[in-house]
Amino acid sequence: MPSADDGYRLYSDLADWWPLISPLDEYAEEAVYLAAILSSTAAVPVHEVLDLGSGGGHIARHLKDKFRLTLVDISDDMLAVSRRLNPECRHLCGDMRTIRLGRTFDAVLIHDAIDYIVTQNDLARVIATVHDHCRPDGIAIFVPDYVKDDFRELAGSGGGGDDGTGRHAMFRERTWDPDPADDWVQADYEFILRKADNSVEVIRESHRLGAFSRDVWQRLLSNAGFVAGSGSPGAVPGADSADRALPGRPPTNMFLAHRRP
Ligand SMILES: C[S@@+](CC[C@H](N)C(=O)[O-])C[C@H]1O[C@@H](n2cnc3c(N)ncnc32)[C@H](O)[C@@H]1O
Asked: Which of 1, 51, 149, 178 is deepest in the core (most CB within 10 A)?
């Protein structure tokens, strides 16, 4: 099975299908919530945000009216998709484990791209990257799809976006855990791509996705020098009344951390 380091087809030769496979509208409600967190939870006013693993720029599209965004992704193909959607944002190619931009931001966000970090060693490297790019008193937000404590095998489907080209895409997925002793689960995808000439291609690809325990998240965030803000690292969104009062839809999992002043 290829790993993220080999480059998954979804983020290389299939990148152009991203808006159809993972429609922009599906990010809207969660982006409203994340914008509210950024505006209400940070100890400093948030203007400049670094989005690591920004992909096709769908989250960015919903945040860019409120914040100045710098978007980093390891895939040039995904950056090209995002540049078309978000031409006013700064785009940079880089690996969230190693990139150093030599400056800080009011906030650093890693949305679902954190799923592609599958070892504790790499998670520690990513958290160090985030810490180095977060200004004192700034906020870091991580939004993994899975945490080990709650993981349950799932099957689902999605897609259906429309980019006006006559193409259509949907996918099916099964996500399961081949070995509960490690920190990743496996998503088996089947992408069904109907091209503008009505020909159909079916592509199957398995991805390794990180599923770390909350204890691991808390330990690595603390080791890096992050402290709990309101909404401690590991907090479950919606679990307290302050979270429930925020607009939009909270992500299933979210880890919030503040850099020491
Ligand atoms: C699910 S997509 C992100 C979608 C994004 N949230 C959006 O709004 O369109 C995951 C992205 O993570 C990127 N990625 C995976 N490993 C990475 C790494 N080590 N550093 C930076 N980006 C990475 C992939 O290239 C891909 O674009």
From this structure: 51
Q: Is the pLDDT of residue 20 over 80?
A: yes
pLDDT digits (tens, 9 = 90+) for 120-165: 999 999 999 999 999 999 999 999 999 999 999 999 999 997 778 8
Please indicate, yes or no, whether the overall pTM of this predicted structure exceeds 0.70: yes
- Residue tagged 């689960």 (tokens): 185
- For residues 30-57, give the mean pLDDT: 94
As to burial, measured by CB atoms within 10 angstroms (0-12 exposed, 13-18 middle, 19+ buried), residue 177 is: middle
Tokens read off for 172: 């099916």
Strand-pair category, 90-93 with 68-73: parallel
Q: Do domains 21-146+213-259 and 149-209 have the same CATH topology?
A: no
Give the residue, 43 or 238, on which the prediction is more confident: 43
Q: Which tokens in the block code for residue 175?
A: 């996500």
258 lines ligand 1 (CB under 6 A): no
Nearest to 142 by CA among 120, 114, 121: 114
Does the Cβ of 183 fall within 6 Å of ligand 1? no
* Whether residue 134 has its Cβ less than 6 Å from ligand 1: no
Structural domain spans, the chain: 21-146+213-259, 149-209
Domain covering 21-146+213-259 assigned CATH 3.40.50.150 in the classification: yes
Kindly state if the Cβ of 57 falls inside 6 Å of ligand 1.
Answer: yes
Q: Give distance in angstroms: CA of 47 to centre of ligand 1.
A: 22
> How far apart, in whole angstroms, are the C-alpha atoms of residue 220 and residue 214?
10
The verdict on the CB of residue 122 being under 6 Å from ligand 1 is: no
- Cβ 251 under 6 angstroms from ligand 1: no
Which residue CA neighbors atom 27 of ligand 1 most closely? 55
Name the fold adopted by 149-209: S-adenosyl-L-methionine-dependent methyltransferases (2.20.130)
